[in-house]
Design a protein that fits this description.
heterodimer, A: about 100 residues, alpha+beta, Herpes Virus-1, 3 strands, B: about 750 residues, mainly alpha, Ribosomal Protein S5, domain 2, three-stranded antiparallel sheet, 29 helices, about 60% helix, about 5% strand, elongated, zinc (chain A), zinc-finger (chain A), Znf_RING/FYVE/PHD (chain A)
Chain lengths: ~100, ~750
C-alpha cells in the first residue's frame, strides 16, 4: 500500500526564535515575557495592535530580549543612560545569529 | 266605658260620611244609588275567567255608576277592592303559567313560553279597567298585575325566558330584516314588565351571543385584525335586536335611540373584553406565529386600551412561557427565537415596554442559567445557524450596543413611566434585538470571548484556498465591530490577519519548495487556547512538517514553527493492490493509515505507543473510519489489519457500520469558555487552599475579599460560592455556619 498525500491543511503556531533551546521552550509552555511591558514576546507591546512582524523583538549583546518598541522607548528616556534595563550594561543591539540557534 | 266625647265624635264622623255618600239627596236615596253604582262598578271590574265568554261593555250605564262612585270620592277604595279581587283571581293565571311551564320543561321549546306570555297578556288585557277611568287607575292596575304575575313565575322561568330571547336573536346568517318578525312579542314583554325586570338577563343573552360569535369566528384567526369586523357585524345584528327590545317594536323611535346610547357602549366593551380574553389565552401561539399574527396583535393592542386586562395578559404569558418554553426540553435556540418574537410582539401591543419588561424578566433569568445561551446568540450573530432562521433581521441597520442609559434629567420630552410599571422598570428605548440579547448578561466580555472561540473554530475549519469564506468571516467581524466596538474585537482582527499572512507565507514557501502541506500559522495569545495533543505524525508527515518548518524559518529568520499535529485535515489517496481510495480525514486518521503502510497489522496498544495518543477511544474511532472505508479490517477486539485486496472480508466478520465516506469534518478542538474558566478556577483553588491553611476557617466574604488581591480575579461572590460548593461535594472543604475550612 502507498499513502499519497494530495493536500494537507495543517495548523501551526509561530514563535520568536529567542535562542532558547527547544527543550526549554517545550517545558515553559507559557513562554517568556518582555522584561519591560511584561507581555509575552508573541504578544505585542502596549502601543501595537498586531503581533509578529509589526511588533518585532530586539536582541541585546547582553542576551536580553525585548519588544523593539518597548526598548526604543526606554532608550529614548534620559533615565535609561542607554543601558539595558535588566542588567544596566550599555545596550548594544546584537546581530541575529540565525544559523547558530537552528541546528537543523 | 265609652265616654260622651268619643260618642259625639263617632256620631259626627258617621254623619259626615253619610252626607258624603248621600250627596245631599233626600233621605237615604243618595246612599242607595251609591251602593248600586258601587256594585255595578265593582262587578264590572271584577276579574273573571277569560275562557268563559264575557261581553263586558263599557256603556253609559256603567259610566254613570263610576261617576257616582267617583263623586263620592270612593274610587281609590274601589280600586283597592278591584286589586284585591284580582289577587284572589290570580290563581287562574298561576294555573295557566304552571301548565305552560311544565310543558316547556318537557319540550324545551321556547315557543311554549311565547304562548304562555300571549296567554298572560290576554289576561291582562281582559282584566284591564277601561282607559276612561284615568291613567292613574290604569298604571296602578298594571303595576299590581305585574307584581302578581312575577309572583306566579316559577324559578325556572328565567332560564326559559333566556332561551326565548336567544331564539329571537338573528342567527349569524340571517338578514337583519327578519328581526322584525315578532315585534309583538317584544311589545308583550314590555307590557308585562319583563323587559325591565329581566334587563340584565336580556343583556346577558346579547353578551353570550357576542361571546359565541367571537369564539367561533376569531379563534386562531390571527392574520387579519378581527375587531372591526366583529364590531360591524354586531352593529348590524345586535343593535337592531336591541332596538326591537327597547323600541317596543318601533325601530326608529327617538326613545329607543336614546336608550341605545346608554346600552351600546356596554356591548362594545363586551366585544373588546371577549376578544381580549380570547387573545390573551392564545398569546403564546400568537407569538409563535409572528409575524403572521399581526392582525391579532393589533386587535389586542386596541382591546387593551379599552379593557384593563394588562395584568391578565402578563400572567397568561408568563404562565405559558413557564409551562411551554422555559424547561429543559426546549432548545436554547428556540427559547431565543421565541424571546425575540416576544420582544417584537409586545412592542406592538405596548410600545413603552412595560408588559415586555414584566414578561421578559423570567425568560432572561432562565436564559442566563443555560450554559449554551451565549454560544447560541453568538452563533446566530455570525450566521452560523443551521436552521437558517436568524434572530436578527438582516435588513435592520446595525447599531452599536446600547447600554442602559441613566435617565436624562434635562430631557424636555420626558414622560413619566406608565402607571403599571414596577419600581425596577427601566424604559429601554426601542433598541435593537442584539442589544437586548446581549444585555441578558451583565458584561459583553463573555460574548466577545465566545465569539473568539467560535471564530477560531470556523477559521481553522476553512480549507486553505477558500478565500471566499475568509472574506465572509471578515465581513462578519466588521459587522460585529460596529456592535461590540473596535477594541473588543481586536483579537479577532489578529486572527483574520493570521489567515491572510499564512496564505502569503505559504505562497512564498511553495515558490521555494513545492509541498503538499499548507499550514495556517496562528499567533499565540490571540487565539483561544487550543487543546494540546501529544500526537506525533509518522513517516512522510513528519518529513513534511520539518521541511516546511525549515522553509518557514528561511523566510522569517527570527521565527520558528510549532505544529499542532492533531488539527487540520488531510486529503489522502490510498493506493491498494486492486483499487485506490480517496479520503479527506483528520490528522490522526492519516497518521494511523501511514503506520499501516509500514506494517500490515497493528494492535490498538501498538498504535497508542506509535502515535503517542493515550486516548484509545480516539484511536479506535480513527481505525473505524478506515474500516468503514474498506481499507482496514477488524481482526479481533484490539487488532486491525490492512485489506490490500477488497472483498476478502472473512465470513462472519462484523458488518461495517455505515457512515458517510468522508470522515466527519469535526470542528477543531478549541477549549471552550467553561473549560477555560474551570482551568482558571483551579488556579484560584491554590490560593484558597493556602488561605484556609494559614488562616484557618474563613467566611465566604472574607475569601472573596482576599481573592480580589489575586491578579485577574473577576469572579462574583456567587460564582465563588458555587465553586466552593463543588469543592465541598468533592470533600475538599467543609462548611459550618457559613464558615469554610479545609476538610482534614
Amino acid at each position: 500500500m502507498k499513502v499519497k498525500i494530495k493536500r494537507w491543511h495543517a495548523v501551526a503556531q509561530w514563535r520568536w526564535d529567542t535562542g532558547a533551546t527547544e527543550q526549554d521552550d517545550a517545558d515553559g509552555e507559557e513562554g517568556d515575557v518582555c522584561g519591560i511591558c511584561r507581555v509575552p514576546y508573541e504578544g505585542c507591546c502596549p502601543s501595537c495592535k498586531m503581533p509578529g512582524d509589526d511588533c518585532p523583538l530586539i536582541w541585546g549583546e547582553c542576551s536580553h530580549v525585548f519588544h523593539m518598541h518597548c526598548l526604543l522607548k526606554w532608550i529614548g528616556t534620559a533615565a535609561s543612560k542607554q543601558q539595558c534595563p535588566m542588567d544596566r550594561r550599555a545596550w548594544v543591539t546584537a546581530e541575529r545569529k540565525v544559523g547558530a540557534v537552528n541546528p537543523t | 266605658m265609652v265616654s260622651e266625647g268619643l260618642r259625639l265624635q263617632v256620631a259626627s264622623k258617621w254623619q259626615e260620611s253619610f252626607r258624603h255618600l248621600n250627596r245631599r239627596e233626600p233621605g237615604i236615596s243618595g246612599l242607595v244609588t251609591f251602593s248600586q253604582a258601587w256594585n255595578i262598578a265593582a262587578e264590572f271590574l271584577r276579574p273573571k275567567d277569560i275562557d268563559v265568554p264575557n261581553d263586558r261593555i263599557y256603556n253609559e250605564h256603567i259610566k254613570a255608576a263610576f261617576d257616582t262612585v267617583n263623586r263620592a270620592k270612593r274610587l281609590p277604595v274601589l280600586l283597592e277592592t278591584f286589586i284585591e279581587d284580582m289577587r284572589k283571581k290570580f290563581s287562574l293565571v298561576q294555573h295557566d303559567v304552571n301548565q305552560f311551564m311544565a310543558e316547556y320543561e318537557a319540550s324545551q321549546n321556547p315557543q311554549i313560553v311565547t304562548k304562555m306570555l300571549y296567554r298572560v297578556y290576554t289576561y291582562k288585557q281582559v282584566w284591564s279597567p277601561p282607559e276612561e277611568l284615568g291613567s292613574g287607575l290604569l298604571s296602578a292596575y298594571t303595576r299590581s298585575f305585574r307584581n302578581n304575575f312575577f309572583l306566579t313565575l316559577p324559578t325556572s322561568f328565567s332560564g326559559a325566558f333566556r332561551a326565548l330571547c336567544a331564539s329571537t336573536l338573528p342567527s349569524s346568517d340571517a338578514l337583519p330584516e327578519e328581526l322584525n318578525a315578532e315585534p309583538n312579542l317584544w311589545y308583550i314583554f314590555n307590557i308585562l314588565g319583563l323587559t325591565e325586570r329581566f334587563e340584565g338577563l336580556i343583556a346577558n343573552v346579547g353578551y353570550d351571543y357576542i361571546h359565541e360569535y367571537i369564539l367561533e369566528t376569531c379563534t386562531e384567526q390571527w392574520a387579519e385584525p378581527m375587531l372591526e369586523g366583529v364590531k360591524e357585524k354586531m352593529s348590524k345584528q345586535i343593535i337592531p335586536w336591541l332596538l326591537s327590545i327597547y323600541g317596543r317594536g318601533d325601530l326608529h323611535s327617538e326613545e329607543a335611540h336614546a336608550m341605545l346610547q346608554s346600552v351600546a357602549p356596554k356591548f362594545e366593551y363586551h366585544i373588546n373584553k371577549t376578544l381580549c380574553t380570547l387573545r390573551t389565552r392564545e398569546i403564546f401561539d400568537i407569538i409563535i406565529d409572528f409575524p403572521d399574527s399581526m392582525g391579532a396583535l393589533h386587535d389586542l393592542k386596541e382591546c387593551l386600551q379599552r379593557v384593563d386586562q394588562r395584568e391578565n395578559l402578563v400572567d397568561a404569558l408568563r404562565k405559558s412561557n413557564h409551562k411551554r418554553l422555559l424547561h429543559p426540553g426546549a432548545d436554547t435556540k428556540l427559547i431565543l427565537s421565541q424571546y425575540v418574537a416576544t420582544i417584537k410582539c409586545l412592542r406592538i401591543i405596548d410600545p413603552p415596554g412595560v408588559l415586555l419588561f414584566k414578561v421578559a424578566d423570567p425568560i432572561r433569568r432562565y436564559l442566563r442559567e443555560r450554559p449554551d445561551t451565549i454560544r447560541s446568540i453568538v452563533a446566530n450573530l455570525v450566521g452560523d445557524d443551521d436552521s437558517g432562521d436568524s434572530l436578527v433581521n438582516e435588513n435592520e441597520p446595525i447599531h452599536p450596543l446600547q447600554q442602559t442609559e441613566v435617565e436624562d434629567y434635562t430631557d424636555q420630552q420626558w414622560e413619566p413611566d406608565p402607571i403599571d410599571a414596577g419600581p425596577e422598570f427601566r424604559t429601554n428605548k426601542p433598541s435593537d434585538v442584539v442589544s437586548t440579547l446581549v444585555s441578558i448578561y451583565d458584561s459583553k466580555d463573555l460574548f466577545v470571548k465566545e465569539l473568539q472561540v467560535l471564530l477560531a473554530q470556523r477559521l481553522l475549519a476553512i480549507n486553505d484556498d477558500d478565500t471566499e469564506k475568509i472574506d465572509g468571516e471578515r465581513r462578519n467581524v466588521e459587522i460585529l465591530k460596529i456592535r461590540f466596538g473596535e477594541a473588543a474585537l481586536q483579537v479577532c482582527e489578529v486572527m483574520l490577519r493570521d489567515m491572510s499572512d499564512s496564505k502569503r507565507i505559504d505562497t512564498h514557501v511553495q515558490s521555494q519548495l513545492p509541498l503538499v502541506v499548507h499550514p495556517t500559522v496562528i499567533s499565540r495569545h490571540f487565539w483561544p487556547a487550543l487543546e494540546p495533543s501529544d500526537l506525533v505524525m509518522p513517516g512522510q508527515f513528519l518529513e513534511l512538517h520539518n521541511q516546511y518548518a525549515l522553509e518557514f524559518t528561511k523566510f522569517k529568520p527570527d521565527k520558528k514553527l510549532r505544529w499542532f499535529p492533531h488539527l487540520g485535515t488531510v486529503s489522502l489517496e490510498i493506493e491498494l493492490e486492486d483499487r485506490t481510495v480517496e479520503a479527506e480525514v483528520p490528522p490522526l486518521e492519516a497518521a494511523i493509515i501511514e503506520l499501516f503502510s509500514q506494517q500490515n497489522e497493528w494492535s490498538i496498544d501498538g498504535l497508542v505507543d506509535a502515535t503517542r495518543v493515550p486516548d484509545k477511544t480516539a484511536i479506535l474511532k480513527a481505525l473505524l473510519t478506515w474500516v468503514n472505508l474498506g481499507v482496514l479490517r477488524e481482526e479481533s477486539e484490539t487488532t486491525f489489519s490492512l485489506l490490500e485486496v477488497a472483498g476478502d472480508v472473512p465470513v462472519g466478520s462484523r458488518e461495517p457500520i455505515h457512515r458517510p465516506t468522508a470522515a466527519e469534518p469535526e470542528l477543531p478542538h478549541v477549549v471552550s469558555i467553561q473549560q477555560q474558566q474551570a482551568e482558571q478556577m483551579r488556579m484560584y483553588w491554590k490560593f484558597i487552599e493556602g488561605m484556609l491553611t494559614n488562616l484557618g476557617a474563613l467566611s465566604l466574604d472574607r475569601i472573596q475579599m482576599m481573592l480580589k488581591f489575586a491578579p485577574g480575579y473577576d469572579r462574583s461572590i456567587e460564582q465563588l460560592a458555587t465553586f466552593l460548593e463543588a469543592a465541598r461535594r468533592e470533600g475538599l472543604v467543609v462548611v459550618r455556619d457559613g464558615i469554610w475550612k479545609l476538610n482534614r
